[in-house]
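Below is one such protein, fold included:
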Amino acid sequence: MNLTMKYDKCKDILEKYDQRHLLNFYDILSGEKKEFLLDQILGINFEEICNLYKNSYIEPEKNDIITPLPYIDKTKLSNKDFKYYNKVGIEAIKNHEFAVITLAGGQGSRLGHTGPKGTFELKLAHTKKSLFEILCDSLKVVNYLYNISIPWYIMTSENNNQATINFFEENNYFNYPDKNIRFFMQNKLPITDVKGKLMLSELYRINEASNGNGDVYNSFKENNMIEDLKKQGIKWIFICGIDNVLVNPVDTLFLGLTIAKSYEIASKSIFKENPNAKEAVFANRNGKPSILMLNEITEEMNNLQDSDNNYLYRETNALCHLYSINALEKCTTLNLPYHRAYKKNTFINEEGMKQIPESPNSFKFEKFIFDAFEHFDKMLLLRVEKNKEFAPIKDLEGMHEATKLYEKEKVKA
C-alpha cells in the first residue's frame, strides 16, 4: 500500500471515530515520519479505545457479597510447620519445577532516572546496585544452594525493552546464565484526553502507554512463554514487580504451603496498619478471592475484627503472586477488564507545541493482575512482615527508606 492509499484509509478511520486532529501536522512531516504516523494509526483499534473511554463513565450496578478472605500469618507458624513446608518447597525447587516472572515495564522518571526502572541504582554503603542486580542476587543464592538455574522471565515495555536488554548485556547478565533469562514485551494502548481524543506525543507520534500489569498473562502467552515453561517441566511460577528491593522471589515456605494445602494460586499480604491509608485490600467477593478498591472499603470494614481481635479487611497487596502452571495458563484465557487512571502526560497542542501539564490531563487504561483472582474458587494468602519483605521504590522518599531496609535485611544478612 503506497503512502497516498494509507493516508486515505487513515483519514476514513479518523473521520469515523472523530479523531481527525491526529493528522493536523501531517503536511509538514518528512516522508519517513508520515509513514510512521500512518502505520501507527492503522495499528490502533479505535473501536476498542473509544468504547473503553465511553464505558469508563458507566458505573456498573454492584450487589456483591463481601466476606473476609482468610490468611495465614507467617510469624505465627510453628517451627514444625516451618520445617515441613520449607521441605516441600525445597523439593519442588530442586526438581526444577519453579520459575520467576518480573514485571519491569516502567521507567524511572519519578526517581529522576532516565531509563528503565530496573536499571535504577541504590547507593549502598560500599557499592551501588541496580534493582535488576538486587533481584538477580536473590536468584543466584538459590541457584548456588541447590545447584540449579531458575528460569527468569522479564516483562518489559516497548519504551524500555531494548534499553533493558542492552543493560543486561553490558553487565554480563550479572553472571546469571543468560540462556535462562528471557525478555518479553507487554502490550500498549493509546492515551486519551478527558474528552476521549487521542493525544500526540510528537507531531508524528500518537501517545501510547503500557496497558497495566494485568497484561502479563496475555503478553506471556503471545510470546509463546507458556509452551516454554511446559517444555522445561515448570509447575510453579512466581510473579513480582521490579521495585520491591526486599522481595523474596524464591520463598520455599510460601511455595511449600501452597503445594501442601493444594492451592492453585497464592499471594502475600501486608497488614494495613493505618485504616485510612489509600491501599486496596484482599477479600472474598461473592465467594471468590478478590481485591477491594478504596471506594469499596467502608469505615466499618476497616475496623471489623473477629473474636480473637484480628482485623478482617486489612490485608493489602504486596504484588507477590504464585501460580501453578495450570492456573497461569487459565489466566491467559481470561478477558480482564480495563480500569481508567487519571494521569499527567505531555502532549502536542493545537499550535504544534509540546506541553507539559502541571496536573493530570489524560486517561490511561490499564488491566490489573489481581482481577484474575476472581476466576478461582480459593487462594492462599500469607501475611508477611512489611519491614522484612516489602520495600517498594515508587519515588525518592520511598527510595531512601527502601535503601535503609535493604542494607539492614539483605546486606547484613
Summary: The chain has two domains: 1-43, 62-411.
